[in-house]
Amino acid sequence: MRLLTATTCLTLLAVAAYADPLPSWNDTEAKSAIIEFVETVTDPASEDFVPQADRIATFDNDGCLWAEQPVYFQLLYAIDVLKEKAGSDPSILTSDALKAGAEGDLEGILAGGMEGLLEVINVSHSGVTVEDFQSSAGAWLESAVHPSTEMPFGEMIYQPMLELLAYLRDEGFATYIVSGGGIDFIRAFAEDTYGIPPWQVVGTEGDTTYAADGDAPTLIKNGGITFLDDKEGKPVGIVRHIGQRPIFAAGNSDGDFQMLEYTTAGDGARFGMLVHHTDADREFAYDRDSHVGQLARGLDEGEDRGWLIVDMAQDWSKVWPGK
Amino acid sequence: MRLLTATTCLTLLAVAAYADPLPSWNDTEAKSAIIEFVETVTDPASEDFVPQADRIATFDNDGCLWAEQPVYFQLLYAIDVLKEKAGSDPSILTSDALKAGAEGDLEGILAGGMEGLLEVINVSHSGVTVEDFQSSAGAWLESAVHPSTEMPFGEMIYQPMLELLAYLRDEGFATYIVSGGGIDFIRAFAEDTYGIPPWQVVGTEGDTTYAADGDAPTLIKNGGITFLDDKEGKPVGIVRHIGQRPIFAAGNSDGDFQMLEYTTAGDGARFGMLVHHTDADREFAYDRDSHVGQLARGLDEGEDRGWLIVDMAQDWSKVWPGK
């Protein structure tokens, strides 16, 4: 083992300290605000210092860590599964939304509102073990391709957010996903994609039962939502799974409003941020009038509440990894 | 900084390796079986080696980590709260079980079966924030005293199980509680008592809603069970919270049967254990006919399933810490 002199060590430490933890973020106020918060809460000399066990950060998934246009990717997966199921048993198409789903008619599904969307997801996600469901979803994310970007869905993740997750973990944070998407669906890729293990994923939960027939006890998805992890549900999901108020929360839509509200209402230094989709060239531009990821109240009240509104076009030098 | 010679280091390592990780366990087959399992799954040269991220161990709480006689301590807490609530508003006592509860009449509550018990818990645990509930429960556990041992309830934990938790964590396991008891109640003491943080507690969940009136958004307990983490519910609770099948599960009653079944049905080395309450002198002796912690199917089938049945009287040299 080679010995390093004290001077060499100090030089290496200095280089490490000055390396940019967020290279895909432009040098704007957004980046400074994030770094200033992290440096404050991790500085033992600061009055806002937060012990490592309390450094909990929560992230929405759709539209925050990966894309969500033209519609939530989980719905596109559900449509593909529904088509296959309906091919062998058309009698499962018992409603207009399901019929639209089996034809890949997005507008037809969304005409049924959230109910139509949930119906397509419930029927496609039922009668399968959790393990088989996750294998199927994982394979789909690698092979199915996005209609406009032509990228595999599983690669439509935001490089700046990957850097933010890694930066927070390097600084002793536990990084959780708290998503309106299905918990089993997100767990199919969260560990490989974001470095977030299954037990740090909070999401919408479907009715699941234990089946011990025969030699292989397992968990079966029955369809039907038992817990909706969206809006007022997000703080509930946090208290059920994490049991502690986060100090950092990131989202992008009004579905994240209550998560940010709950997080930033705690004592001491807190950080709330909303990713604003302003970049039609590199990604998509949408907010108040979008049928997915609608952001209106967050834009109206966020700044007054001290939340950071990230302007994707201005604050990110890069959107996708490797591009 | 003093430098250690290589020989000193090796000696220290050897001492550490030979130190008994389970000093309150007698040198019986139970202790050997546990240690052999842990040494096997942590040995990179073993074909049953398990990577650290997959070393998940789940523990029941009542009757496994702490005592549960004459009845679950959470019910005794609920009775004390109910008495207080009924003192200022007797109109809340709308059933025989609740009336019995307010009089501290255990048999009267249990005459109503599980329903009566849940009613007392629901009424006493509602209309309070999660944070206030946990402060109240935590204070009660330190001050209220067990009727027969005269120990504070919060101290009626099993020293051999504390050692087992610490041993597993030292060997890279994540240790979870998976209990039929209330998740908020257990979190009131699990970190201080067992070293288990809130996000590693899985339990029965009550209806909880987010309230953002005024300046202090918080979570309110409404009473009413939304998820029962017992029997078939335990594997469901595991898949919801942990998202991965454990390799080690410990319980003491038939309420833990499915957790052990699910755990030990996985591939590779697995460990299931049941604490059998055989020690009327130092703790309590009960199994098939007990109204709490009934253990019958586990005794009938456990051995054939390869589960370890721990004989508390024979296998433990000590029951309580400090005694």
TrEMBL record, chains A, B:
Coiled-coil region(s): none
InterPro entries: HAD-like_sf, HAD_sf
One annotated GO molecular function: hydrolase activity
Keywords linked to the UniProt accession: Hydrolase, Signal
Domain of life: Bacteria
Signal peptide: 1-19
Signal recorded as keyword: yes
Name of the protein this chain belongs to: Haloacid dehalogenase-like hydrolase
Organism of provenance: Alloyangia pacifica
Taxonomy of the source species: Bacteria, Pseudomonadati, Pseudomonadota, Alphaproteobacteria, Rhodobacterales
